[in-house]
Amino acid sequence: MDTLQKIRHGLVRALEVLIIVMVSLLTLTVLWGVFTRFVMGRQAQYTDELARLLLVWVSMIGAALAFGEKAHLGVDFFVNYLHAEARKTLSVVVQFVIIALALAVFISGGWNLAMAQMGQELPTLRPLTRGMVYLSLPVAGCFISLFALENLVAILRTPADQIGAQTQSEG
């Protein structure tokens, strides 16, 4: 296994562990909120807000990881009918579009949104701010960009007649 593959494997493993930890915290937070509400008569104030924050982060990091592992949804019914060279060209274009959207929407837009909200504290989770929730966008955008760049390099190195589906479940 070469160095880049080891780095990729480590990155994917770190994202998996992060998601496991966040989902565990999310589950415990929701259970604690239900327990305090129905058993103790008064819900712990922070549980709703913490659950929302964790859900956003789990969703964004999970989406990036799913993209990196090619476990996302893909519709390639018509693509499979294209000539091999056209399929390869289309795959390259798709990766460039993904990189452009990740850079423009997730990284740039997400960063601007997060910075604009950094002064707004979460009422029950001080000193956390609303901007920290939105930081999940540029973080996920960075991972999506890296994975798309990796896909692009792999596509360019692969002969056109060997280019297939871009998702694990179908290819």
Describe this structure in words.
Helices cover 69% and strands 0% of the residues. The chain has helices at residues 3-38, 47-68, 84-116, 130-134, 136-157. Helix 1 runs antiparallel to helix 2 (47-68), helix 2 (47-68) packs parallel to helix 5 (136-157) and helix 3 packs antiparallel against helix 5 (136-157). The mean pLDDT is 92.
Keywords for this entry:
single chain; 171 residues; mainly alpha; 5 helices; 69% helix; elongated
Topology:
Elements: H1 3-38, H2 47-68, H3 84-116, H4 130-134, H5 136-157
Helix pairs in contact: 1-2, 2-5, 3-5
- Please give the count of helices: 5
β content, as a range?
A: under 5%
Q: Would you identify the regions where 5 or more consecutive residues have pLDDT less than 50?
A: none
Q: Taking all residues together, what is the mean pLDDT?
A: 92
The residue fraction in helices comes out at: 55-70%
- Helix-strand pattern: HHHHH
* C-alpha termini separation: 22 Å
Structure class: mainly alpha
Largest sheet: none
Radius of gyration: 20 Å
Number of strands: 0
Shape: elongated
